Amino acid sequence: MLAVSSAAAALAAIAAGIALLRLGKSRSAPARSADRIEVGGIKVGGSEVGAGLRCVRFELAELAAIRNLLGEQVAAGLLACLTRKIAERAALAKPAVVGDSAITLTLHGNAAAQTERQISLVCAALAETTTYAGIAFSLTTRSAILGPDGLWHDSASARLLDPAAYPADRPESRDLNRLDLLQKFWVGLENGEVALAYQPKLDLRANTISSAEALLRWSRADGVAVNTGDLITLCEQTGTIKQLTRWTLGKAIADNEQFRAAGHDLLVFVNVSGGLLADAAFADDVLALIAQTPSRIGIEITETAVIADPELAIANLDRFAQAGIAIAIDDFGAGLSSLEYLQRLPASELKIDQTFIAKLSSSNRNPLITRATIDLAHALEMRVTAEGVDDQLSLALLKVMGCDLAQGYLISHPLAPNKLLSFLATFSGAGSLAKSLAKPLVNPAAARR
Ligand code: C2E
Ligand code: CA
Ligand code: CA
Prior knowledge:
This protein is α/β, with parallel strands linked by helices and 449 residues long. The protein is built from 15 helices and 18 strands. The chain has helices at residues 7-26, 63-70, 72-90, 112-127, 172-190, 228-237, 241-261, 280-291, 310-322, 339-344, 354-358, 365-379, 392-400, 417-428, 432-437; strands at residues 32-33, 36-39, 42-45, 55-60, 97-98, 102-106, 130-132, 135-137, 141-146, 152-154, 194-203, 208-218, 267-273, 296-302, 326-332, 349-352, 383-386, 405-406. The strands form four sheets. An eight-stranded mixed barrel has the order 11-12-13-14-15-16-17-18, surrounded by five helices. Strands 5-6-4-9-10 form a five-stranded antiparallel beta sheet, with helices on one face. It has a three-stranded antiparallel beta sheet with strand order 1-2-3. Strand 7 and strand 8 (135-137) form a beta hairpin. The chain is elongated. It starts with 6 loop residues before the first helix and ends in a 12-residue tail after the last helix. Ligand C2E is lined by residues 199, 215-216, 228-229, 232, 245, 248, 271, 273, 302, 304, 330-331, 354, 388, 390, 408-409, 414.
């Protein structure tokens, strides 16, 4: 497995690496095992420590996917743009060497302080969002040092996007379609075509609506329908999800302040891709945004992208939990969560994927899986939401199983903010929907099968 680290982590690892490599020159080498030494997460051949640092390479994790999904021109243009940016910022004496998806810098070992400064400037430049062809890209940087042993030493272990997953021989027109889609989306975002729809969640004990999930909606000016899930996947693969998620958070906060002003103190959940969680700068942004509002905001962790560095992701989630931000694990059962991961996440809610709920009343196995999941989550002190509840019998079964919350078309489709307010007004007035959802199960034996 290869290493993907956030720019901040990369900087820390490299800075530690340089510091120790420098130390090795003048003093005895730091703690080593056999002939290997680990410095700031980077493993270097111990016996050669001190011979000098040669090169630093920054690999851009999403570039292969950008090349394959959006075309060679966009990948090359973005790379050139980033290279210009870092050359300017770090005032490089030698031009950077640009590969297919990496930028390599030659460093001068005897001016270590200057070298460290240059690396820190490069890391900062790469961590920034770069707008190219009208699209805001935020790429994940993986760093490696060329050690005195002539080998590249990576900073940590994680998984890179697999270029094989995106065959390069796709017709050019498809690339152009995707590029056009992303470009139009970014224009649409500025022009007010993008909004959030809110899907209410029903508290099964109190029969009230106390939370809702924010879901992205793009109403294209030309009327073409866009599938939200496909759009989000494209944003995740091409490194454009970070900027979009910042926008979504800001919008959810503004909308929730309106709900609050109208007398509804809702906990609004925003979807955050697992791939963003290891990014400390992103976590800082989330904390700063949420700290400014009196409204309650939670995050749902979606696992559509690989969680790059689970240790860092958990550290950032701990910061969210300490700041009082509710954390829900999305799509449980369909994603990649292991039980070990489940136990370590500071989550207060588990959402059972809709594939299990859709056939709850017609399949033999799904009720067993659902019930076991509810018990497991309760044992871990988490509340459980069943997603995709779209019939009365499933709702009744879920109540008997002890499920805490239900979300789905039976209760409501995702609604525009003003429609959500009308829905909440009717619901809290104990209208016919609230009464029908409160009905007890006709045949409780069915739930215990
Ligand atoms: P999700 O987080 O699992 O969201 C639930 C999806 O199921 C939504 O689709 C919702 O409209 C749909 N749904 C809700 N109730 C029912 C039901 O009873 N039956 C059925 N068949 N479907 C139901 P949507 O809005 O198209 O979103 C698709 C996915 O896109 C979401 O899945 C989420 O992973 C992602 N997504 C949406 N908005 C955002 C966002 O702002 N940021 C991120 N990162 N991802 C988002
Ligand atoms: Ca979700
Ligand atoms: Ca879900």
